[in-house]
């Protein structure tokens, strides 16, 4: 059953339509003119409106126009007099979805109305989806507000402890960890527990901003500093004044900007791009990276002096696979937060589903887990998430091989070097430090072994000769 509004000033025709549509089980309201139709729709929106085009003083085209202006999802079918197709086309241009040419059979009326009802339903579905997306967007904004770092595994307890100790000091903190491990959340937690908590927390992802724009994003620019600099713009340092500035992906800062950042950290002042005036700043800097900054320093891609300035207090966030104990707790926390938002009454995980989550290696870390829970909730329709609600990649997890799952953070060479180092160490220990035996276990020449032992810092340089090999 649908709610249908019929507008026609021709009594017999109007009554006829009412009878036909009511017989089909619809809830029909009929009015005699355009103005009445608009008023009735405003009072109570109909699923479908069927209106004659030729009415005075307000005609059918005007009805279409007004209803669509007020409700973009209004679904209107127009009735045109024989031989006035052009007017019907005009009405369609205004947003009517279909037309009926007089005279028409009850069958034609039924068919058009049924089709219109279907379209109206689709539109309503899309509308709900839109409204939900808006709510989700708002929630995302709200999500930016601090919420606790979940996880009480031993490594996370250590992180909490470090946050508590470092927060009240003004020390510069470097948060290290793979992508999705919660580095930004740590930065917020430090800010929220600090004396600056009432002041702004400003964050910037240094990787997301093109090299040429990063300097002006951080330090602002003066009017006319470069093409397109129409007015003075404040940079993040000024926006974060007296608060905390979070520099995410700090390893991506190009050398030219590294120099300027170093100066702010040392002297607490800077100049805007294209400006002469020196701006004093009082900002606590917290930065984060998933890169190996010491390696970048060694390779000359990151200034050593800047590295030491940023790395006053390092906080290392372990990848999720190294704290499997947190998976349960995080999954339940995300479930509790996301289920109401998606409109699901799901309150738990089936034991088999939880088991699959525990077994997954989580290369995308906590962010991946959060996404997986959200996806599963979309499919879950009971009160527990079942294994079949989980994404394919989780259900058919490869058997654990003990190998790290590549996540894009590190190159194959790096991963292989790690593995090589581990294997050499294992052999070295097994051989109780006897190098000739270590080389034999590994099936390589002693000279190759010496080279690798030094490379990985397992023995100090120059120690190689002591066995006389
Ligand atoms: N311990 C945690 N408790 C609750 N939510 C977490 C936790 N860790 C991460 N998250 C959530 O996971 C997502 C990723 O976290 P965040 O953005 O802080 O990671 P990141 O390490 O900064 O990632 P990237 O390096 O990709 O920027 C966020 O939605 C965050 O709320």
TrEMBL record:
Residue ranges annotated for the Response regulatory domain, each copy included: 3-117
Coiled coil (UniProt feature): none
A GO term, aspect molecular function: sequence-specific DNA binding
Name recorded for this polypeptide: Two component, sigma54 specific, transcriptional regulator, Fis family
Superkingdom as given in the UniProt entry: Bacteria
4-aspartylphosphate: modified positions: 52
Keywords noted in UniProt: ATP-binding, DNA-binding, Nucleotide-binding, Phosphoprotein, Transcription, Transcription regulation
One GO term of the biological process aspect: phosphorelay signal transduction system
Entry-linked Gene3D superfamilies: 1.10.8.60, 3.40.50.2300, Homeodomain-like (1.10.10.60), P-loop containing nucleotide triphosphate hydrolases (3.40.50.300)
Organism: Anaeromyxobacter dehalogenans (strain ATCC BAA-258 / DSM 21875 / 2CP-1)
InterPro entries membership: AAA+_ATPase, AAA_lid_NorR, CheY-like_superfamily, Homeodomain-like_sf, HTH_Fis, P-loop_NTPase, Sig_transdc_resp-reg_receiver, Sigma_54_int
Domain Sigma-54 factor interaction: 149-378
